[in-house]
Structure to design on (396 residues):
């Protein structure tokens, strides 16, 4: 029997750890998981009734218990991609993500043919989450409603005008699982943003030439997020602050951030943190299928991608997603001046859960929530990942 199987629907007792709950930090605390849920968090030892059920005890001395990371923008990993539209591809991604501290994620599509997008959406709709894997909690529809001038690695031939009817059809195919949609607001002539806002979507402006004023107008209509901040958007100029300036100035906006020191340099990460703060940042990976593999030639949306020295690019040098692990992005943020472990939790767990209306069950250490938990040391080295009550990864 595997460790994953042994932990199913039994008790896990973590003892002696520093527990970062939703409201406070408990030193030398105790946390009890039963089944898939957190059932008790205490400063005092937790005693289990001798009912014959298996209890896995974890010594948390010297470790921090924090909520699992939520990756709201990830295309693939380990030679699998959401657009492969197979159960095996989603299994592969969900199986490897606990190794980097990700316990749930949005399977992210990209600009492709209508048929390819529909196949991917139908596949996610039919997918059954597996015990001991990261949980797919929805879809991030990145494209095709984007601006060709900021397409990045999105194939231009498949870019479409925003369409309410197309969106309705895709959400029906996805069985309601589309949570986030990236759209270029300056291209929206069909009132798609208004429709999405009225129906509770997380609307993210991205792959866009929108000016500051256009982003401000989009925010008034219901856009509350920017896709991979700094990338595929207008930057700051001293006479026009662009979408990046909007991220700094407009409080309703949260911003995705690829903290790999490639998409955003370490100096830019510091500048972003200083101006935005942890309360409005969402750590993501935007990872593609080459994550967790060696340098070489791969594929993204039918295009060849070349990976070398942690950088994934198209033939013309355009960045084509990342191979970033969430735990490494979190570590890069923790190295910045002023960033604490609490800030990392906010950016990688709390904010992503709130942004897609999952905070009632994800994103914090609270009795009654899903037991998505990490045990890490002071440097964020990962000792355990627990996904919905099952030990999914154990470090050395």
């Amino acid at each position: 029997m595997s460790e994953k199987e042994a932990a199913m629907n039994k008790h896990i007792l973590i003892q002696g750890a520093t527990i970062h709950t939703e409201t406070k930090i408990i030193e030398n605390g105790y946390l009890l998981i039963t089944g898939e849920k957190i059932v008790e968090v205490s400063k005092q030892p937790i005693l289990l009734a001798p009912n014959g059920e298996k209890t896995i005890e974890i010594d948390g001395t010297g470790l921090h218990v924090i909520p699992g990371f939520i990756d709201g923008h990830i295309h693939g990993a380990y030679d699998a991609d959401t657009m492969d539209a197979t159960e095996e591809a989603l299994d592969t991604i969900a199986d490897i993500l606990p190794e980097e501290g990700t316990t749930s994620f949005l399977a992210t599509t990209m600009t492709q043919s209508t048929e390819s997008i529909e196949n991917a959406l139908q596949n996610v709709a039919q997918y059954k989450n597996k015990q001991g894997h990261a949980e797919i909690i929805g879809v991030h529809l990145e494209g095709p409603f984007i601006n060709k001038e900021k397409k990045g690695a999105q194939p231009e031939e498949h870019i479409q005008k925003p369409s309410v009817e197309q969106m309705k059809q895709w959400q029906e195919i996805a069985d309601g699982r589309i949570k986030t949609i990236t759209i270029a607001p300056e291209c929206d002539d069909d009132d798609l943003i208004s429709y999405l806002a009225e129906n509770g979507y997380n609307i993210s402006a991205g792959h866009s030439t929108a000016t500051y004023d256009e982003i401000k107008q989009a925010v008034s209509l219901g856009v509350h997020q920017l896709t991979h901040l700094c990338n595929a958007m207008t930057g700051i100029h001293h006479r026009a602050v662009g979408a990046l300036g909007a991220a700094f100035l407009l409080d309703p906006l949260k911003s995705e951030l690829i903290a790999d020191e490639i998409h955003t340099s370490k100096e830019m990460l510091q500048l972003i943190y200083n101006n935005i703060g942890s309360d409005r940042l969402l750590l993501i990976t935007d990872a593609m299928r080459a994550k967790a593999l060696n340098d070489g030639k791969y594929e993204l949306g039918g295009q060849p991608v070349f990976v070398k020295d942690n950088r994934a690019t198209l033939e013309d040098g355009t960045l084509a997603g990342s191979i970033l692990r969430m735990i490494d992005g979190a570590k890069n943020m923790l190295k910045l001046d002023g960033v604490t472990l609490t800030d990392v939790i906010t950016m990688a767990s709390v904010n992503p859960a709130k942004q897609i209306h999952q905070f009632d069950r994800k994103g914090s250490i609270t009795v009654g929530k899903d037991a998505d938990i990490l045990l890490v040391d002071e440097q964020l080295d990962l000792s355990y990942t627990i996904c919905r009550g099952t030990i999914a990864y154990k470090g050395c």
About this structure: The chain has two domains: 3-66+364-394, 69-355. The first helix runs from residue 3 to 6.
